[in-house]
Design brief:
Elements (H helix, E strand, L loop, with lengths): L2 H9 L5 H13 L11 H8 L3 H14 L2 E5 L10 E4 L57 H8 L12 H12 L10 H9 L3 H20 L8 H6 L8 H7 L3 E3 L4 H11 L13 H9 L4 H12 L2 H13 L3 E3 L1 H6 L3 E5 L3 H13 L13 E5 L9 H15 L4
Antiparallel strand pairs: 1-2, 3-4, 5-6
Helix pairs in contact: 1-2, 3-4, 6-7, 8-10, 11-14, 16-17
């Protein structure tokens, strides 16, 4: 969730209530730089109470106007949506769509004025709020990778069929596995990634698990940034024994035991310090009116941005049927999980615990697998929130080395 983008959209003229509502919902998926928007049209239609054609039309308009940039096209498989980034600089300056009031000509220079700009029917401020200004051409902000490619400094990995967006996506997939992902500078990471050759990028990706595993075996609890790992080529420091041990990493299919262990292991970390906990002005007014509590706001913001690794795991499982990879330590934790039937009393208890603690819960629980794994309860335990809380705490203590 980006409170920053949502605040800008609230203040901007978007052309119609439906366009503003959709833009706000998209910003709710994005980070403060506008990245990471990939809900399906069906999801957006349900959440905004619009029909799918209206959502599709507005999305297409947003792309034409430069408010959205397509990062990756949908694959065509069910649940796999097109991924977008929002361009913050374009908010409020994009041309208004067909249901708005603006007459967009597509020209760079404004058309010939037909009246006095100060008159009631003039070009700037008429009584209906219409004007005949030309569409403003906005160049979307570009990533480090795109700028390097344009300047000719990036190597062949960004040429030909491999687009800059694809290269950035590859970097982010590797970056998510780094321990300091939540607090790293993505700009610095991109810059360090671009500076490597194809072979070095491959070595950095394949050597990451071994480097982290060896560091943890030596008792390290703090790690450098991902950009430092790349710039100093730290994967080259991994011993042969550590590399062999890391080779035992395992695939963790979505919804399975190992996947669940990875999900709860991620919850053992402190919330992302970049998560903006401050209520919006509207939320402040609702809190003052007694229709919303400050704790509800805090928990909602934590669920949206406190554990981005968990959000990524959930999104990949829900929308891409994609799991993750785990090391031997997490794989061992998988045996401390149990199956929970979707929609059961035990499932509802886990959902309530997530809500109470501000943990992310599945955006569309109805599309989860029929059986999902959670930390196992003690023998004879019930199905209350207290029972699942005890199971969660025991599991998290094990992850943190307290058990």
């Amino acid at each position: 969730m980006s409170i920053l983008l949502m605040s800008r959209i609230f203040k901007a003229r978007m052309g119609s209530p439906s366009r503003k509502l959709l833009a706000l919902r998209l910003a709710d998926y994005a980070d403060d730089e506008g990245r990471g928007i990939w809900p399906t049209v069906a999801t957006l239609a349900e959440q905004t109470e619009m029909d799918r054609r209206t959502v599709q039309r507005h999305m297409a308009d947003f792309v034409k106007e430069g408010l959205l940039v397509v990062v990756a096209e949908a694959s065509g498989r069910p649940g796999q949506a097109t991924r977008y980034d929002m361009v913050p600089e374009a908010i409020g300056r994009a041309a208004v769509g067909s249901d708005g009031c603006h007459g967009v000509t597509g020209d760079i220079a404004p058309p010939v004025e037909t009246g006095d700009t100060g008159a009631e029917t003039g070009d700037i401020h008429d009584r209906d709020g219409r004007h005949h200004a030309a569409q403003t051409v906005i160049e979307p902000s570009r990533t480090i990778i795109e700028r390097e490619r344009a300047s000719g400094n990036a190597d062949s990995a960004t040429d030909g069929a491999v687009r800059a967006e694809t290269m950035r996506a590859r970097m982010r997939r590797v970056h998510r596995e780094w321990p300091t992902f939540a607090t790293d500078s993505e700009v610095a990471a991109e810059r360090a990634w671009v500076a490597l050759t194809d072979e070095q990028r491959e070595a950095a990706a394949t050597g990451l698990a071994a480097y982290v595993a060896e560091a943890r075996r030596t008792g390290r609890t703090k790690f450098c940034s991902f950009s430092t790992y790349l710039a100093e080529k730290r994967w080259e420091r991994v011993t042969a024994g550590a590399a062999s041990a890391a080779a035992s990493t395992h695939a963790a299919p979505a919804w399975g035991k190992a996947w669940a262990a990875a999900r709860f292991a991620a919850l053992a970390a402190d919330p992302d310090p970049r998560c903006n906990m401050a209520p919006t002005r509207m939320q402040q007014q609702m809190i003052a009116a007694g229709t919303l509590s400050a704790d509800e706001v805090r928990r909602a913001k934590l669920a949206a941005g406190g554990w981005p690794r968990v959000n990524t795991l959930d999104d990949n499982a829900l929308n891409r049927a994609r799991g993750t990879t785990v090391d031997a330590a997490v794989l061992a934790l998988a045996e401390r999980t149990e199956q929970v039937h979707r929609g059961s009393a035990l499932w509802r208890a886990w959902a309530e615990l997530h809500s109470q603690r501000g943990w992310p819960w599945f955006a569309d629980a109805g599309r989860c697998a029929e059986w999902v794994y959670f930390p196992a309860r003690e023998a004879g335990a019930g199905e209350t929130v207290a029972d699942v809380a005890a199971a969660a705490d025991a599991f998290l203590d094990t992850v943190r080395g307290r058990a």
